Amino acid sequence: MFGVDSSELLVVAVLALLFIGPKDLPRVMMQVGRWVGKARGYARHFTSGIENVIREAELEEMEKKWREENQKILAAYPADAVYPEPIPAATELPGAAAPVMTALPPAAVELDEPTLPFEAPAAPAAPDHDPTPPTERPLP
Question: Is the pTM of this model over 0.90?
Fold first, then answer.
């Protein structure tokens, strides 16, 4: 993280043990841990604040683009203009009914023979009485 190697951490730990002493070392390490925790909390809060500012700026930019596009659409199609009526679909015409299925599709003709050419099944192989493994046998 900070470019500190494990050997450097070992030297710092030995020096802390020598200068602080084994009696006060747990209390000092606890205090250092609290400081590190607070520093990480402040860094996390700062980072999330910056990310929120960036996110809000992006949202404002997207909203601005949306408003501009909406203004273009409203200018092209004003609300008080006269527009032709849409053509209704065939099912929406008065007196027209939705198509109804009156018969089942023709059934497939059943054949006694398969439509695809199949090969005859291979004859069962004769039992193998050769004791040598197949990998060591000469090829025919």
Answer: no
